[in-house]
């Protein structure tokens, strides 16, 4: 078993102990479950969030072991880069990677636990607060202008709260899916395709984006709508194929 541990230089002592203990024994049994999904599990241990990524399949065990950065490493490095660009994200503390005989097995990402934050899922509240909606659109456009492309720019991956000056503040999570690239119009369209899969809500957000960006609202709304319909069609196609496959395997 090979082990790689990376810690931020300013990580608190209690977080150092948590990282070392997790490397040796796994996530503490006293950890609080925050989220348990197919691809990863999120825990809270005191003032720290621990994200345990699911074990990759046989092919990706080789790919991550040799060629590709792990999701935990990307989360940590992308978090630091976001902060350097002036964007907010929970403070990255470190990550762990485990390999066995050159094959990747487990990884963990450690970051700051935030209090008093909400996600952008409550669009009814956001749409009724014009200042909040406009600030969010400005934040999103600044990401795009700086070449920050979140491939899953969805409401659950955007946190919001109020800063010490009473201004709206937004923070990004699920950082392993971020790319730092030269962004173009197609990235802006894709960015807002899944911001809300409610067609009416999506259109209202896109019209605000167009207003803030100074671009043609009708064309932008139409482009995003076209992408959203493709998304719905793909989901439907996948459901049909899954149903056919399950029927064949059970007969």
Total strands: the figure is 11
N-C termini distance = 42 Å
Global Rg: 20 Å
- Assess the beta-strand content as a share of residues: 15-25%
CATH topology of the largest domain: Transferase(Phosphotransferase), domain 1
Q: What global shape is seen?
A: globular
Number of helical runs?
8
- Low-confidence segments, given as residue ranges, are none
* Main β-sheet, spatial strand arrangement: 1-5-6-4-3-2
CATH architecture heading of the largest domain? Orthogonal Bundle
Mean pLDDT equals 92
Helix and strand content put the structural class at: alpha+beta
Helix content: 40-55%
Number of domains: 2
**Sheet with the most strands?**
6 strands, antiparallel
Core attributes:
251 residues; alpha+beta; Phosphorylase Kinase, domain 1; Transferase(Phosphotransferase), domain 1; six-stranded antiparallel β-sheet; three-stranded antiparallel β-sheet
Secondary-structure blueprint of this entry?
Layout: E1 2-7, H1 13-25, E2 32-36, E3 40-45, E4 48-53, H2 58-66, H3 71-84, E5 92-100, E6 103-112, E7 118-119, H4 123-127, H5 130-145, E8 148-150, E9 158-162, E10 168-172, E11 178-180, H6 185-191, H7 199-213, H8 217-250
Antiparallel strand pairs: 1-5, 2-3, 3-4, 4-6, 5-6, 7-9, 8-11, 9-10
Helix pairs in contact: 5-7, 7-8
